[in-house]
Amino acid sequence: MKILVTGSGGFLGSRIVGLLLERGYEVRGYGRSPQPENAARGVEVIQGDLADEAAVANAVAGCDAVFHVAAKAGVWGREEDFFAANVTGARNVLKACQQHGVERLVYTSTPSVTFSGEAFEGADESLPLNPNNGLSPYAKTKAIAEGELLAAHGKAGVKICALRPHLIWGVGDPHLVPRVVAKAKTGRLRIVGEGGNRVDLTHVDNAAAAHLLAFDALNHGTCGGRAYFLSDGEPVVLWDWINDLLRRVGVPPIEKKVSAQAATRIGGVCEWVWGTFGLKGEPPMTRFVATELAKSHWFSIDAARRDFGYAPRVDLAKALDDVARDLQSGR
């Protein structure tokens, strides 16, 4: 089989590429960077933008299946930029799959598509999508894309499912863990809320394995047209987990707190300032981030276990040691 992975140079995408290569599949990667590491392991790399319909169609042509992993992520930015990458990009991928006879499409979504501002504790896939999210253009555009893709399941012969890994981490993570550690080192990181909120994490190797399991299950008709929450299956107390990591890398634990209400107000002010004056970079706080940091967000993975045999297998204690060692090495 020839399989396309969009976002093949990214943290999760590159892991999925590795698993596909281990199976002996022919892999094509699509992204904005040249990806020399993927090219060196035999991946056919095509550079292009998700919003470029012709380029996406060219990348999809000749492939039997697609893993659509690429997206514009982040907590701040122009909504039109998120829309172009996440919605227009998904539409382009779907159209190309339908035109070129692709049989299976696995879409990487996010639990943020269900964001409502409320805490989620053991919630399942009955939660409704929120395509009208006014606090996060990322979550809003991913919700639109997921809804459209799942609605297209079975049309033109394309079987489609969506996976929602929560907070992907592991060695090589370019975003989540390094940013937390870097901010803690400045002394500006604060516990938002009371500090007892529990959240899901998803090790990158668990997330990648789940994508291939879902890919296989699509062929057997057990998960088509559905979305699935993914995690390590062990919700953590967020701030305890962060402080455990900080201790392992020699950074003082976070002890100072800011109330959720104060953080939300600060986030609103920051959004106004950044939006009004067009400041570069991300604001230090947004209302969406304040909510996510203060409230519990963990989800049932029973559906993924049932429908495609997902079972987190990563030794989480060892994985945290590996991440700490990697951070200390300065890589």
Number of strands: 15
Mean pLDDT: 96
Uncertain residue segments: none
The end-to-end span amounts to: 35 Å
Number of helices: 12
Question: What's the short version?
Answer:
44% of the residues lie in helices and 16% in strands.
Question: What report would you give on this structure?
Answer:
- This protein is of the alpha/beta class.
- The chain has a domain at 2-169 and 202-231 and 302-313: Rossmann fold (3-Layer(aba) Sandwich), CATH 3.40.50.
- It has 12 helices and 15 strands.
- The protein has helices spanning 11-22, 36-40, 53-60, 79-99, 137-151, 176-186, 204-220, 238-248, 260-277, 287-294, 302-308, 316-328, and strands at residues 2-6, 26-31, 44-47, 65-68, 104-108, 120-123, 159-165, 168-169, 191-192, 198-199, 202-203, 227-230, 236-237, 257-258, 297-299.
- It has a 7-stranded parallel β-sheet, sandwiched between helices.
- The radius of gyration is 19 Å and the shape is globular.
- 45% of the residues are buried.
- The model has no long low-confidence stretch (mean pLDDT 96).
What descriptive keywords fit this protein?
331 residues, two-stranded parallel ribbon, alpha/beta
Q: What is this structure's SSE topology?
A:
Layout: E1 2-6, H1 11-22, E2 26-31, H2 36-40, E3 44-47, H3 53-60, E4 65-68, H4 79-99, E5 104-108, E6 120-123, H5 137-151, E7 159-165, E8 168-169, H6 176-186, E9 191-192, E10 198-199, E11 202-203, H7 204-220, E12 227-230, E13 236-237, H8 238-248, E14 257-258, H9 260-277, H10 287-294, E15 297-299, H11 302-308, H12 316-328
Parallel strand pairs: 1-2, 1-4, 2-3, 4-5, 5-7, 6-15, 7-12, 8-11, 9-14
Antiparallel strand pairs: 10-13
